[in-house]
Amino acid sequence: MTDDLVIDVRGLTKRFGGRTVVDAVDLGVARGRICGFLGPNGSGKTTTLRMICGLLIPDAGEGTVLGQDLKTRRSAIKARVGYMTQKFGLFSDLTIAENLEFFARVHGLPRRRERVAEALEKLGLATRSDQLAGKLSGGWKQRLALAACVLHDPEILLLDEPTAGVDPQARREFWDQIHGLAADGMTVLVSTHYMDEAERCHEIAYIAYGRMLARGSIAEVVAGSGLKALQGEGHLPDGTGADRLAAAIEARPGVAMAAPFGTALHVCGPDMAALHEAVAPWADTIHFREASPSLEDVFIHLMRGAEDNSVVVHQ
Amino acid sequence: MSATPLQRIGAMVFKEVRQMLRDRGTVGMMLVMPLMQLMIFGYAINNDPRGLPMAIERGDNSVFARSIDAALRNTTYFKVTELVETPGAGDELLQNGKVQFVVTIPADFGRDLVRGRRPQLLVTADATDPAATGPALSAIGDAVGTALGHDLIGPLAARAAGQSPVELVLHRSYNPEGITSHNVVPGLLAIVLSMTMVMLTALSVTREVEQGTMENLLATPLRPFEVMVGKIVPYLGIGVVQLTVILLAARFLFQVPFAGPLPLLLGSTLLFMITSLGLGFTLSTLAQSQLQAMQMSFFYILPSVLLSGFAFPYRGMPVWAQTLAEVLPTTHFIRLVRGVMLKGWGLIDALPEMGVLAGMLVVLGILAVRRYQDTVA
Q1: pLDDT above 60: residue A312
Q2: pTM for this predicted structure
Q3: Does A79 touch chain B (CB under 8 A)?
Q4: How far is B373 from chain A (nearest CA, A)?
Q5: Taking the first listed entry, what is the main subcellular location of this protein, grouped into a coarse class (chain B) (predicted)?
Q6: Rounded-to-integer distance, Cα A107 and Cα B225, Å
Q7: B215 at the A interface (CB within 8 A)?
């Protein structure tokens, strides 16, 4: 990690009504890094992104974005950050080219026409530039939205669930593009629900119920969870797969969770010896081998832990 | 078991009622609209207006003049608000809209009456709104007849018999023929502009919020003030087109007189348009959806049409309705348009109403900028 943190916020807190949506979140992201921002629905991801790009003023906390104070220099930050909203936010009654031209004008970009033409070319939309943006399919809308928010060459790109509802091929192309931008020095903070996308990030931050629960590279987060896993495969005497045992095994002591994957069963818990003991009754027919816990295991585990905490807090 | 048509319709009805009750704007419309209309049509609007402000210009102090004065004060049609003695003072009051009628009792009125010379009694009416003046004029004749009937007794009784002892001269100012369109067309300018300006702006901002484009706008370096001005300018263009169409129609289709200076009318119209746009913008910051924005504009436009003096005489309304009308920019603009076009107002005459509009603009501007944040929540 370098000292060049382009996003550097501490204790970021936001309340809506009496509810604390984001609770003392610290986040530092270095230049050129792609940071995956994960967490369950309603965990405060969007609110955090909005605070970072100056769309919301935090109730508490401080920090800098691109060296500018988060609270007092919001306009300066807005000019150098690209933010792609969760919902398609371009003008559906303007054409593709008109949308891009609008953002080029707002940012006062020199050589506007060329910039827009280049962007259209890069998008592969040059021939369809007169089509209304609202008529585009989901995948194209997403590509256009990305093109619009990187048009002014922002130093930071904030993406709020950019690939929701987009097909796998378009998602892959999207991520290739993100990596290309990061290689050129753009810093990316991207929220997502997809584990495969999380694995494409340099580092991840996991937030649940407004609190940052895990931070680091994927290996660090998995190791930090202290979670162990067993993978069970084989058939029960009645011919059904190991997956049928999920409920029975999850009820055993020492098991945090047991999830079926096809006919296989994935069992996690904090202690390997306890896991082996938990699955012992079925060990004669099902073969259990030690596996590494997945990111998903870790997140579900973290989320359940956080839920427990919140219950305690309320009592 | 499949559902019967009745069950399926029941499911729809259930859903609709739930949604309707959750939508406060619609519930408000359903309950408040009829109440508002009941109040306005039932109490505020009066086609036979009473208590119209009148000035008496009395050049004569005879017993007859005084009893005409008293008789006019006694009718419910008029409220004598001014008593002046300098000639011409009454016309000035009429010009700036302080009174609607001026009754001029000329010098030597009493003496001429006694001598049987049939003195003239001049009634000048502000006929910019012919509907408001009609019934009142006949009331003046009655009042004068009754007053003199009491006084012309004894040796003067002969004066009361036969032909009326005074000659009632009626002068309908600003609209001598009492043509309704002379009143309606200038008023229509105010109504058309308030409808389009307020509604278009209110809708345009909420549309951005509803479609999710506002978040994108706010994430750019655009400032609230810039968004506001950027949105308002095109609507000003629309307003100018509407103004041109109505003025051309007034001139060539309806032959409405244009007594005052055109630049003054253009200036006041610009002021009114910006005020209306500011109002629309303020409404849009209060509304959560386009539907609500539409409903709010409706709550503004309905009283604007009914109370501003456009459709019904302002003077005929009770005080509460007049007070309400004073709060509406349309009321003041209607006075300005009619003043400039029909009465030939100059800048000095127009200043008070323009001042009110400017004041409203300042208040609305502050409100709109304060409500419109460059953050999303």
Answers
A1: no
A2: 0.81
A3: yes
A4: 10
A5: membrane
A6: 16
A7: yes
* Interface ipTM: 0.81
End-to-end CA distance of chain A: 40
Same domain, A109 and A236: no
In a domain, B210, yes or no: yes
Q: What is the pLDDT of residue B160?
A: 63
How far does Cα A308 stand from its chain's mean position? 23
- Does residue A118 belong to any structural domain of this protein? yes
Report the first-to-last Cα separation within chain B, whole angstroms. Answer: 48
What is the domain extent for residue A250? Answer: 228-292
Say yes or no: B213 contacts chain A, CB-CB below 8 A.
yes
How near does any CA of chain B get to the CA of A88, in Å?
7
Chain B partners of A109 at a C-beta cutoff of 8 Å?
none
Q: What is the distance in angstroms between the Cα of B224 and the nearest Cα belonging to chain A? A: 11
Q: Within a domain: residue A260? A: yes
B360 and B313 within one domain: yes
Determine contact: B244 vs chain A, CB below 8 A: no
Angle of helix B329-341 relative to helix B262-286, nearest 10 degrees, comes to: 170
CA distance A293 to A225: 9
pLDDT tens, B20-59?
888 877 888 888 888 888 888 888 887 778 888 899 998 8
Q: What is the CATH number of the domain that holds B87?
A: 3.40.1710.10
Three-class SS state of B317:
coil
Contact B273, B190 (CB under 8 A): no
Looking at the domain assignment, is residue B11 inside a domain? Answer: no
The model's pLDDT over A211-231, given as tens digits with 9 standing for 90+, comes to: 998 999 999 999 888 899 999
Structure tokens at A237: 């005497």
Supply the pLDDT for residue A310. 42
Furthest C-alpha separation in chain B: 103
Closest B-chain CA to A15: B377
Average pLDDT over chain A reads 89
